[in-house]
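Thread: Modeling a multi-component assembly for a lab meeting

Hi all, long-time lurker, first post. My supervisor asked me to bring a structural picture of a complex we are working on to next week's group meeting, and I have zero experience with this. I have the sequence lines for every component (694 residues in total). Could someone generate the structure of the whole assembly? Inputs are pasted exactly as I received them:
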Amino acid sequence: MPPSLLLEQLLNGLQFGLMLFLLAAGLTLVFGIMDMINLAHGSLYMVGAYLTATFVGLLGNFWLAVPLAVLGTALIGMLLELTVLRQLYRRDHLSQVLATFALILIINEVVRIIWGSQPLLLSAPEELSGPVEILPGLNYSAYRLTIIGVGLLVAGLLFWLVNRTRVGMWLRAGASNREMAQAMGVPIRPLFTLLFGVGAGLCAIAGAFLGPILAVQIGMGESILILAFVVIVIGGIGSIKGALVGALLVGIVDTAGRAFLPLLLSQVAPPEVAANLGPALASILIYLLMAAVLFFKPQGLFPART
Amino acid sequence: MRKAVWLLVLLALGFSFALAQPRTVKIGFVSTLSGGGAALGIDVRDGFNLAIRLLGNQLGGLPVEVLAADDQQNPDVARQAVDRMLKRDRVDFMTGIIFSNILLAVGEAIFEEKVFYISPNAGPSEYAGEQCSPYFVNVAWQNDNLHEAMGQYVQTRRFENVFLIAPNYPAGRDALTGFKRFFKGRVVAEVYHRLNQLDFSAEIAQIRAVRPKAVYAFEPGAMGVNFIKQYAESGLLREVPLFLPGFSADSDVIRAVGRALVGIYNSSQWALELNNPVNQRFVEEFRKAYGRTPTLYASQGYDAALLLDTAIKAVGGDLSKKDELRKTMLAGFNSTRGPIKFSPNGYPIQNYYLRQVVQQPNGEIVNRLVGTIFTNHRDAYVDRCRLR
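Re: Modeling a multi-component assembly
Sure thing. I ran the full set together rather than chain by chain. Output:
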């Protein structure tokens, strides 16, 4: 196995993992602090991608479109919190799951009405559509490198926000013990609304940057939401650090599984069997990872609550 | 009292209208109209509807009613729609399905009701061989065919070896089987991935590591758009030539991918500039009606309606004559590809062409007809079908 293949797969895993982290970060904070299961989180990712595609169409510039889409999605997220989700905090998890699942259906249908049921076209900006030589003889997509850069930047900002600012301190306090934090005067209500806006904005960043690689289509949020849940279960609910480690683990294991499992299988099994078994095994690999983590650390790798 | 009389008169009038109305032909059209495969279903639907409109909303002289449903590329949704159309709406014909895994999930139910299924796209090898049915006709191709043509072409270019990639579903396996039937060089790797996968980074890294002399990819719909874009972004396109079936090189994919496609060779049973009156009318009317250039999918939808028109006309509108209907359908019709006939298993005997995507002096990117790869080509499974 050539080292360049390993390096390229590592970069692919890193790129996918960082985008997963942006989704999981919002999800884990909402779940950890508000004790609220929000299935509609993936819908905000979809809305972010659709807004980006729309703004790119209007302005013709990807770099202008992304901040607008992030802002727009954050506003939509806060609006959702103020109108609907706020009513659900006191309910049990089953009601929350039912209500936010209904939100998924409603948002999908609204998107269908506004943008139609065909996927939208969103292309990477022209200047990034080629390869760059990262090592002699090894080309890598400039756009994917940019995604890694953006992901690291946003992750860094988030860590600064959570660990070095007053709002971050409130968040951490809320995550470890909500009642106590409230009793100590943390303004929980506006904090929740803000948190929702930030979570939605992070979703929109992921949607905007993954849109050109994947597809801007209805239902794009549900498939990635499942992975985001796997990430926060692995990382420990409520923990940003856990979300980052979990996301990178899931990203790298998923990419490596897809690339190397069929190769390994083809050494021991006939090609037809390997061709059928490889992709199937690769797709359950991350769930095996989750099961293994839960077996040894039922609270996840970095539990926020002790 | 007077009211009752009026009511009777109205009723009588209503009945006489009902009796005077000629029989309508009901078509159940189940297709993929949302999600990543939507472009295919919409093209087939638009081609099909265009033909019916040009025929004066009639097929073979009978007024037409088309019941359309979206299968969302989900076998369960498709099964419900098909059941409803067979049992409640009692359709006379069914058509529209794009993906082979969907067709294989509902085919038996349609054949059991003795309803003809006219396939405008999906052509699984299962229905060409042992499981062939007298109620199945495919106006497009058997799944292997376009790939057989590309295998033959890559063979004539004398590439030492080739890397194959396709989604893991019936048509994906048919595709690579078809390619390998005519390509005699070495296959360095045969990669199958999840259907509707959109990120090909892992597969592209594998191609880079293997360094094949050529790559052949069957990636229908949005998968093709993403694969070609990402293949170009990775820089591999400049080093390892990519060959495609015609599905991934028509105007819909050109619109989405752009310049990366220029120079790529692909195979098809149809081409924009095929020189026959049916095709010329089709291309002109399609552009006028929808404001875009038709794809091979649109031509297949258009042809499905033409075949129905020919067959219903031949039996004089008597849809109960099933044997005769089948006979006239297999005898062939005048399609956008000229006159074509069918094998006993319901699959067409036709030519397959080589096309190349080129950029014209005015900057427009088109898929141009270059030559003929197979003439009067049959599918490889017909001998295993017991029908004669």
